[in-house]
Amino acid sequence: xxxxxxxxxxxxxxxxxxxxxxxxxxxxxxxxxxxxxxxxxxxxxxxxxxxxxxxxxxxxxxxxxxxxxxxx
Amino acid sequence: xxxxxxxxxxxxxxxxxxxxxxxxxxxxxxxxxxxxxxxxxxxxxxxxxxxxxxxxxxxxxxxxxxxxxxxxxxxxxxxxxxxxxxxxxxxxxxxxxxxxxxxxxxxxxxxxxxxxxxxxxxxxxxxxxxxxxxxxxxxxxxxxxxxxxxxxxxxxxxxxxxxxxxxxxxxxxxxxxxxxxxxxxxxxxxxxxxxxxxxxxxxxxxxxxxxxxxxxxxxxxxxxxxxxxxxxxxxxxxxxxxxxxxxxxxxxxxxxxxxxxxxxxxxxxxxxxxxxxxxxxxxxxxxxxxxxxxxxxxxxxxxxxxxxxxxxxxxxxxxxxxxxxxxxxxxxxxxxxxxxxxxxxxxxxxxxxxxxxxxxxxxxxxxxxxxxxxxxxxxxxxxxxxxxxxxxxxxxxxxxxxxxxxxxxxxxxxxxxxxxxxxxxxxxxxxxxxxxxxxxxxxxxxxxxxxxxxxxxxxxxxxxxxxxxxxxxxxxxxxxxxxxxxxxxxxxxxxxxxxxxxxxxxxxxxxxxxxxxxxxxxxxxxxxxxxxxxxxxxxxxxxxxxxxxxxxxxxxxxxxxxxxxxxxxxxxxxxxxxxxxxxxxxxxxxxxxxxxxxxxxxxxxxxxxxxxxxxxxxxxxxxxxxxxxxxxxxxxxxxxxxxxxxxxxxxxxxxxxxxxxxxxxxxxxxxxxxxxxxxxxxxxxxxxxxxxxxxxxxxxxxxxxxxxxxxxxxxxxxxxxxxxxxxxxxxxxxxxxxxxxxxxxxxxxxxxxxxxxxxxxxxxxxxxxxxxxxxxxxxxxxxxxxxxxxxxxxxxxxxxxxxxxxxxxxxxxxxxxxxxxxxxxxxxxxxxxxxxxxxxxxxxxxxxxx
Lengths: 72, 850
Prior knowledge:
heterodimer; A: 72 residues; alpha+beta; Eukaryotic RPB6 RNA polymerase subunit; 22% helix; B: 850 residues; Barwin-like endoglucanases; 6-stranded mixed beta sheet; 4-stranded antiparallel beta sheet; 27 helices; 39% helix; extended; disordered N terminus
């Protein structure tokens, strides 16, 4: 795996619940990711519709967290 | 869904539907049926039933609208219509008509699909963009109608408006009959909403005539009327329509009727769009193409980009800018003429009633122009009305008074690339005819004084004034949001002045010290710190806050102790070191902002730059040819270096010819040679630099300015005094121009230094013609590059702004778009605003650790 590919993780239902509670956001407010996205294949994630993927991007100044919702 | 927006948004637009007018709708809407292809009669009165029928609204003052009874201002105008004797195709809808005809049967007018398929499609009614494509591909291979077994003809469209069915032309009437027979259910399957857009409505039988206010006629000085292009076009349509009618009634042959019909089609087509492809544009008598409906809206000069996104406003001023270092960075110098023309509304209250009255009673400059009374009546203040208005003045009146010192205005220079291209200044009315700007304000605007013009906007409401003061005031922009370092900072002579002021050798007499301090408004003279007077460091320290302590490391501290040593400030006293660009403009200002806020920083910049300018004036700073004249021995040294360059290049060339040159990895032999030559020239440029620097000495003003970062670089001095050096095109030596040589003055395949753009002369000495030409080649390249870069980056910026303009940093520091969808979960990944982070804090922490 190339080291510029940021880490993708599948959130468990509990984590998902917590995220939606904490950020007060609706699934519709999340950016999307295809279930067929190559990054998911790369990390061996089998995602279903409505799952949330956590992406950890390590940058020069910070480590930023992103969340994406799986579509299709 | 949208927590942070819900409270503000009361109504949301769900969708907008555009539809086609049916002929019935047009007739119902129409205020007048237009029957006469003319405008005014001989008494210059609008003809009833003509194209400027009084029922369509009024444009002449005094006349009343026959439809609504309104006058010039109150009547919005009303649409009329023309009944076309023969229908014509609407050119902008021909594609949709083609689509409908291709997917339906000409005889039974059903969609060319099996009944079950139609039912299935009708059931799921999907309104999406690709319905059309889907239907096209589904019906493409159908050769026989599944409903009536009729052979499906080939329908062609000869753009813009002529249809062919198996190579015979279809008349608009035939098209209309066909389209009107397609059932509503079938249209839904095709993706059309029959309630809003029946395809036969796209064949025009009644033409909508816009109200006169849309196409006003202009009265020339001679008294003649000149009609709008649209009116001209409508007259054309009417004339042909009448001729066609007359011919049909007289029983003219079909051929003539069809000719006229086609002409009517042409006029209607150009009425909608005079730039229709394959159609000659309709022209005015003078030969100028007419500006018809499409042309009014389209492009840069169209309604959208010119009028709706355009930005011409009242209460604004524009002229050339010039520098005034004596005004504050928060100020803008406004010419008296401007101040007299621009006004600001001032609300009369019980507290400022007397002040308002004074403005009204004044006959000269700061006077009131208009008074809007509490009942909304607007009165002009003139000599005759002045007394009365001032007597009736009461709280609630609004006085439009001229611009005075201290008024809040916005100042802007285009291109407005970032937020600090528009800042809030306070007015300073000055004599002269230019807008005055403190030189320290130049970097954010990217302005200089070589003829730049800037715009000024007088803010009209209190809310806007306060908002501008808080968000946009110049002193709040000192720290740039881009990198967290000051962008409003001392320039050029300020830096030179501060350096002269703060170096060890500077001593002032008592009277000089008093003058300098008085500039900053300091009236307390400190105890002299030198036996012969007051040191510059002492004077400068008077400007620093008492709690300021800094140790600024200056990078090249070792080489020249004379003017580059570490700057040490302890408790507001400059202990050691002379200020140069970095310490002055970055470190000190940044520290003051973080300690005492932006207003203290403003005062520091104002005062220190003014004192620095006085100091540089006392000292004297000028540049002459003598700055760049070298002694004979230095010139000899330069000659030696020059010879060494030629010789080394010769050697390299020799090796190349003998094939003894060692090839660099990954390079061809020729590339190796070029690389070596480039190395040789750049190595010797450094040698020349050393000679020049040593020769010109540390007291040379040019060198001082370069070293402290006030203006120019060492390279400039080297090129002027020593040698201009190797010219490059696309970072290679010039090689093209003539066959195998760059200039005709050299032999072919001459790879020597002079033949390939090495300029050994200096600018002071002057270049020989070949050198001059090579220099021009390099100069042209850099010029073209700048031109291309600005154009390209401008367009890129435009696209970026359009893409990002709706993004918002929400309260939880996430970045979201207008729908509330996350773009970043934390602004910038770390939620940090660079302008609120001091780069000094980091280095200080390090120091503490040490």
